[in-house]
Design brief:
The complex is a heterodimer of chains A (about 150) and B (about 180).
Chain A lengths: L1 H9 L7 H17 L3 H18 E3 L5 E7 L2 E7 L2 E4 L13 H16 L7 H9 L4 H7 L6 E5 L1
Antiparallel strand pairs in A: 1-4, 2-3, 3-5
Chain B lengths: L6 H12 L15 H9 L3 E5 L3 H16 L5 E8 L1 H5 L6 H8 L3 E6 L2 H9 L11 H13 L9 H4 L3 H12 L3
The chains are: A alpha+beta (about 150), B mainly alpha (about 180).
């Protein structure tokens, strides 16, 4: 048994497991310490994404909301790659692959709520929305660790 | 077993004993059941003992959380049954990995030692045996640190150097290999 292990180690077939143990432990403890059940966590994750999507277009596949723990403090870490910024917050976006169809209506809703600037309501929303914000696109999508603790629990 | 014993009873007992003792050590059962509540309620400080394994550290973390909420302070850590060879091969959680994760100061480190089983079989305290086992030395050091002495921690990588390891290193020094 020991000899077999040794040979496997020598051939690089079995990798050291301590690092894996540490990662697994940190993940379990983050969940243990926060005392959140998976359904609540998933619901919170969905709602956070919805709120963020109101203000910026985010890459849903590349994003993640997870719990991390350090020094007995658990933090909610959201890593959300931004595709582009929105000039006007949207009201109810869930998944919007084609913003042009929804934006005018939503833009009017928002401006009506603001009860003031009717001029820059619907037409302006689409235009600058697409153009000037795109340069940030690449920088943020390239796996930049834009993670920031959103909330300590 | 002792279901009638409440945390308040335990506190009274400890108060009685502590009137004529310097230290009162309460051996707390594993887990977070009634026995733990009794022991923790009567305690001023705590020593959490765990092994460097995922499930054990996870349980220890739960206990530490409860002790924190019960204002038991300070809490120190003893890492038990450490296997230096496995730690060196990175197949066992390193000591500092566990202390980092649990965020506790290390009071002591006990290497895995067969003499523990032998001495419990015989019913003889390991600390009184004259063979000088690694675990026995570790227990002594823990006791001295508890008394406030500054005893350096035993480096586990140097503990388990048996005859063969010493022989091999001698050969290497001589230059045969």
């Amino acid at each position: 048994m020991a000899l077999l292990d040794f040979i496997q180690r020598l051939l690089g077939l079995q990798k050291p497991s301590a690092a894996t143990a540490k990662e697994r432990l940190q993940l379990v403890l983050a969940h243990d310490r926060s005392d959140l059940n998976p359904e609540l966590l998933e619901q919170m994750r969905r709602e956070i994404l919805e709120v963020v999507q109101k203000y910026v277009e985010i890459d849903l596949e590349g994003g993640e909301v997870s719990l991390a723990t350090e020094d007995r403090v658990t933090a909610l870490v959201a890593n959300l790659p931004i595709r582009r910024a929105r000039l006007k917050p949207l009201a109810p976006p869930r998944d919007d692959p084609q913003p042009t169809s929804t934006d005018p209506a939503v833009g009017q809703e928002v401006s009506a709520e603001e009860a003031g600037n009717h001029e820059d309501a619907s037409p302006v929303v689409d235009g600058p929305d697409a153009e000037p914000a795109t340069p940030t696109n690449n920088a943020l999508q390239g796996g930049e660790p834009g993670s920031s603790p959103v909330d300590g629990i | 077993m002792l279901e009638w014993l409440t945390p308040e009873d335990m506190k009274k007992i400890v108060d009685l004993v502590s009137a004529q003792s310097d230290y009162v050590l309460i051996d707390c059962p594993a887990g977070v059941e009634q026995g733990f509540k009794n022991a923790a309620h009567a305690a001023q400080e705590a020593i959490v003992i765990t092994t460097p394994e995922i499930s054990a550290v996870r349980d220890a973390d739960r206990v530490i959380g409860l002790l924190n909420s019960m204002q038991v302070q300070p809490i120190q850590l003893v890492l038990n049954r450490v296997r230096p060879k496995m730690v060196a091969n990175q197949d066992m959680l390193a000591v500092d990995a566990v202390t980092d994760i649990l965020a506790l100061p290390l009071l002591g480190l006990v290497v895995e030692d067969e003499q523990v089983i032998v001495s419990t079989n015989r019913g003889e305290p390991l600390t009184l045996s004259e063979t000088g086992s690694a675990a026995g030395r570790a227990y002594h050091n823990i006791a001295r640190r508890l008394r406030g002495e500054n005893v350096p921690l035993i480096d586990p990588s140097k503990e388990r150097r048996g005859l063969r390891a010493r022989f091999l290193s001698k050969i290497r020094q001589v230059g045969l290999f």
